[in-house]
Design brief:
Helix 2 packs across helix 5. The longest helix is centred in the first third of the chain and has 16 residues. Helix content is 35%, strand content 13%. The protein is an alpha+beta fold. It has a 3-stranded antiparallel beta sheet, with helices on one face. The protein has 6 helices and 3 strands.
Length: 161
């Protein structure tokens, strides 16, 4: 707020555990939930991403994965999403589509004259490949990575090797 206190936005209720639980209950077996999940380029957003992923799994989602999209209209050029699946990945006809199904769907689009100049299957499948530091933070259950958020990741030296 104007006095420097944190501002609670009306949309915050969408990311509360009760709302996640209600969404989980509303989905059929094999259902998917896709939420906007901020950017991995802002430390406070990174904390939220991990919290939301943990909440999703805590209410019963079999898998919750963070994906990243390039979008020029967003301030950091990147926005993320959290794809939550009610079915385990081992159940092939439920949950997120396999790479084979993604390619088949794209081939159908092309055959029907519905191809675009932007989308192709690697864009979809690669969205779940994250920078190592983000992957380690988001998918770690340990809280001691808090120090990662205080580091200036823009100047961090990558370790090759």
């Amino acid at each position: 707020g104007p006095d420097g206190s944190p501002v609670e936005l009306p949309s915050a209720v969408l990311y509360e555990p009760d709302h996640f639980a209600a969404l989980f209950r509303a989905l059929k077996p094999g259902g998917l939930l896709n939420l906007q999940a901020e950017t991995l380029n802002i430390p406070s957003d990174l904390e939220g991403i991990r919290t939301w992923r943990e909440q999703a799994q805590g209410v019963g989602f079999a898998r919750a994965r963070y994906g990243s999209l390039m979008i020029s209209s967003y301030p950091t050029g990147q926005i993320g999403f959290l794809l939550c699946e009610t079915a385990a990945p081992s159940e092939p006809e439920q949950g997120a589509p396999s790479e084979r199904r993604i390619v088949e769907r794209y081939q159908q689009m092309v055959q029907q004259g519905k191809a675009t100049s932007y989308y192709h299957p690697p864009l979809q499948t690669s969205s779940f490949i994250l920078p190592l530091w983000a992957e380690q933070y988001i998918y770690s259950d340990a809280k001691e990575e808090e120090s990662m958020l205080s580091e200036d990741v823009a100047t961090a030296t990558p370790v090759v090797g």
